[in-house]
Write a structure and sequence with these properties.
alpha/beta
């Protein structure tokens, strides 16, 4: 299957590479000509404008967006839709707010263009391990994407699913990330308690290794904690400054709107905000975890 990919950064580039390895033809476009040149050297088909990208795809076209949420998505859709025709599909694989997704889907429906939202988890490991994908959109449009989704997933029948209408994929991914905040915070606080117990002089990497096997709290996040502590036991040089990319805030806001108590997710978000005012071990470990699973930049001390 040949599809277009707009956005060839770390996530988009990795997804394109996995698709190419899976036998798909990917026409890639990015604002930087150098990025497109590099993409072609890795087996992709380069496009240096939206017009060229559209021309290299046969109807019904599929164009997958892997670009920042918000205004960049709207601007790209604005430039792309005049080049598309009835029955074409735009896919948003980023972390858009689900309300924006519903608005865009309704607008594009008036032009007979499908809009599918694919909430995507997997970070920098998705290239080798596969991506978890929460898909929202029209049944026909999602079914058309099945070969692509099966290639990107950990296995054709695992790690992805059509969860509902337009917006539902990004909604589920939003909640997923809110849960992630809470899980990461619990790990970070637990390891901070052990780090403070000076009389035992605990080897926290060793503790993480013990917990990784057979423990009730074993998880991929724990695997990444173990790896981070093995590389840097004292977390030296990592500033206790934890960014948040937005989804946690949206989850808390949605919980309030729906009258659902979500104290753990809410406090984990507030803890990230507080990290910008304090210096402590748990925030350093949170920052190290974000770097391990998503390649997010670590703010250095000093």
């Amino acid at each position: 299957m040949r599809i277009g990919m707009i956005g060839l950064g770390r996530m988009g580039g990795n997804m394109a590479e996995r698709l190419i390895k899976g036998g798909h033809e990917i026409v890639g476009y990015a604002r930087s000509r150098e990025t497109v040149d590099r993409f072609t050297k890795n087996g992709g088909i380069g496009a240096y404008s939206l017009e060229e990208l559209s021309g290299l795809l046969k109807p019904p076209r599929v164009v997958w967006l892997m670009i920042p949420a918000g205004v960049p998505i709207d601007r790209t859709i604005e430039g792309l839709t005049p080049l598309l025709t009835q029955g074409d599909t735009i896919v948003d694989g980023g972390n858009s707010n689900y309300k924006d997704t519903m608005r865009r889907a309704a607008s594009l429906k008036e032009q007979d263009i499908d809009y599918v939202d694919v909430g995507t988890s997997g970070g920098i490991w998705g290239l080798t391990e596969g991506y978890s994908m929460m898909v929202g959109g029209d049944d026909r449009a999602v079914e058309q994407l099945r070969p692509v989704l099966e290639t990107l997933a950990p296995a054709p029948d695992l790690g992805w699913g059509h969860v509902g209408p337009s917006g539902s994929g990004h909604f589920v991914k939003m909640v997923h990330n809110g849960i992630e905040y809470g899980m990461m915070q619990a790990y970070a606080e637990g390891f901070a308690i052990m780090d403070r117990k000076d009389e035992f002089n605990l080897d926290l990497h060793r503790v993480a290794e013990i917990w990784r096997f057979g423990s009730v709290v074993r998880s991929w996040l724990l695997d990444l904690i173990s790896e981070a502590l093995d590389e840097n036991p004292s977390l030296e040089g990592i500033a206790p400054f934890v960014e948040d990319s937005g989804e946690g805030r949206w989850t808390v806001s949605e919980a309030i709107d729906l009258n659902v108590a979500a104290p753990v997710i809410t406090m984990s978000l507030l803890r990230r905000l507080l990290s910008r005012e304090e210096d402590n071990y748990s925030d350093k470990l949170l920052s190290a975890m974000r770097n391990k699973f998503g390649g997010h930049e670590i703010k250095k001390e000093g």
